[in-house]
Write a structure and sequence with these properties.
- The chain is 68% helix and 0% strand.
- It is an all-alpha fold.
- It folds into two domains: 73 residues, no CATH class; 127 residues, Leucine-rich Repeat Variant (Alpha Horseshoe).
Length: 217
Amino acid sequence: MITREIINHLKKNSNPKDRVGMSRFGIDIKYALGVKIPVLRSLAKKLGKNHKLALDLWKSKIHEARILASMIDEPQKVSEKQIEEWVKCFNSWDICDQVCMNLFDKTDFAWKKISEWPKRKEEFVKRAGFALMACLAWHDKKTPDKEFIKFFPIIKKYSDDERNFVKKAVNWALRQTGKKNNNLKKHALKTAKEILKINNKTAQWIAADALRELKNQ
């Protein structure tokens, strides 16, 4: 399938009602068609991995085409320049999380970006830093705990960011890292209790929500 045929396929599988639904969930639908994720995953499976095609799909600017691009790209062929170009295009929480989950956390630059992106001011770049933490905690089975423990000071430092899509990602990173194993859970609970003492409503929400989930795990 060439890029144009894929986009035509996406358009045929789009639903205006789903597009409206996306908007209700805070997704920027300017370039969205209204195609469900299972449809994208099924198409990605048929297409297989293809770095050049992924780059072409990304250039289309179509929301679902970009998510599909993250599903078929080849992590070992992704450059740091590409990652930086793509992250600057994030305009919704779903594309941020999908690209981090499908592609970025499998590249050679994932751990480096965890230390860089939380410092950035752009809302979705900062979110991507914390989304990467959550994705690595979920997917990375080889890295020792000592590297994941380094997440917690960063989580605490930026727990006062009141922007909705940032605070939810900070919360996600704290919860997901804590759920990785009992050792990291202990560190996550300690961090959450420290964040709870910060005189900031956003920080206190992040901490309380994480404590509730981790204690019930």
